[in-house]
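Let's do one together. I've listed all components of the complex below, 629 residues spread over two lines.
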Amino acid sequence: MSTLTLYMQYIVNGLTLGAIYSLIALGYTMVYGILKFINFAHGDILMVGAFIGLLIYNGLTGGEAADPGAWTLIAFFIAMIISMIACALLGMLIERIAYKPLRNANRLAPLLSAIGVSFILSNGAAWIFGTQSRRFPYPFNNEPIHIGAITITPHQIVVIVVSVIMMVLLTSFVSKTRMGKAMRAASLDQSTSMLMGINVNRVISLTFAIGSALAAVGGILASFDFRVYPSMGTMTGLKAFVAAVIGGIGNIQGAMIGGVLLGILEAVGAPLLHIPNGMRDTVAFAVLIIVLLVKPDGILGKNEREKV
Amino acid sequence: MRKAIALLLVAFVCLAGVVAGGSGEGGSGDTYKIGFIGPLTGDNANYGIRCSNAARLAIDEINAAGGIDGKQLELIAEDSEGTVDKALASYEKLAYMDEVCAIIGPVFTSPALAVAQRCQEDGIVMVSPSATHKDVTAQPATNPDGLNYVFRTVPSDALQSEVAGHYFYEVLGYRNLASLYAMNDYSQGLALGMKETFEALGGKVVAEETCMVGDKDFRTQLTQIKAANPEAVYIPNYTVEDAQILEQAAQLGLNVRFLSSDGFSDPEIYNLAPDFTDGVIYVGPAQAEASSLLADFQAAYAAAYNGDAPDSFATNSYDAT
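Okay, and this is what the predicted structure of the assembly comes out as:
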């Protein structure tokens, strides 16, 4: 295998990982854009989404025993939609109970509240489902496809395609619809948008709903590779948060670029620098520090100066 | 015979505890308390639950036979989740609150390394059923004479990896191997030990890749291994990582034989990677030359725990108790 194909293989693998980070990073970035607050429970919503998806899918098909076919694909689609709706409701509920009452409090208060919610969700899941990893069976035939010396699995293609669809939908929603316009206005200036007659509370609820639904998709897509377990959101959520910061937190395109970049960095970084792969996270986080030193607002972040 | 040894060991263990712990500490009242430390929850819960079940079984048998010196044994199991800090917290509870005279475990190597040191200092006997690292009972840096309160019933990784190296080279006839191991005391100890033996015999480890415990994506490592074109890959890790490695290797078209270690004996692997375990060879402690005691143990274990079959961890745990 030549070095070129080797690196192309790394990039294919990194792209899959990155697409999942992007989907999850969108939730962090959208909430930050409007509320200037990091929703640390976002990673755990992803976990809830994966569990709901798995339970519904297994309920519909009988799980591992089912042969992949049209029915398993339909069941997977149903499981994904229900999981998205459930997570959207959960996201709105969490915002209503744990964050809204603190909106005018000290900036640390909602942050701590988010960490609390994160623990409640992951420990709650551990209590209900147990702490073991569960396998999400492939709803389609996952025989690897060989293109030259490069190998790609149908799962990887699905991850990339679904992520791209979700991102296109989100982008056109935010840029074309009235509600999207309201979101952009609220992220620029909340009180002015309120004066202009925008229902900011509704905008915020919607932001949480969309972010959480995307997290559910990310969680389900990740669970084929990562397995489903109560603490699955912790590291994945953290990585997605890093992706959002690298891309420029608060910026939707930035989150997408940051996620893909982080995924590829993780896959390529260690072999490129000839350091052991056990150090891949070190590489990813070192890049975060460098990005922050060079461009504190992230790749697509606006370089705004505080007015004196 | 083995039972006799086990009983002797327990007797010795408790005696040592009493002598070391001062006036009757750990033996207060009518019971001797024995602690257990292992992962009872989390991804590695299977290892710990089987070990504690086996220990409990052994203790029940000893109690049914009249206990030791007329005193009954009591097992207090604590959850380490397989981590060092939780294991140390468990140790402190067992040693200072429950005042146990002996500890079975910790199950995993890294926690065992940490707890062994404390047991030695406090004079509590520790018998690990499964901590393989050669330093668990030696820790030469701080204790040149070895840890005389610390025992184990599993061969050290020095032995296991040497056997693995010889087996891969001589019996399986491999000359080029790759290894992919987690950066923890258990996996690293095995991988490095196997490499030493294997290369001393004339073989070559053509790719040596590492990962972190808890990693989920091994594609970069496996791609590198595939490029190095080994005859087989040695993966001396715990179940969750090994399951992912096997599945992703199949997806990347890395179709060589996989070799593993005693960590692979946890049957959970068949749930996590059902189709990918075929043809994996793992080196573990042989299950005692068809002794009737082993058969008795397996039957008793199955009867006591709903037909669940004990793995090599559980078997060793029974011995330890």
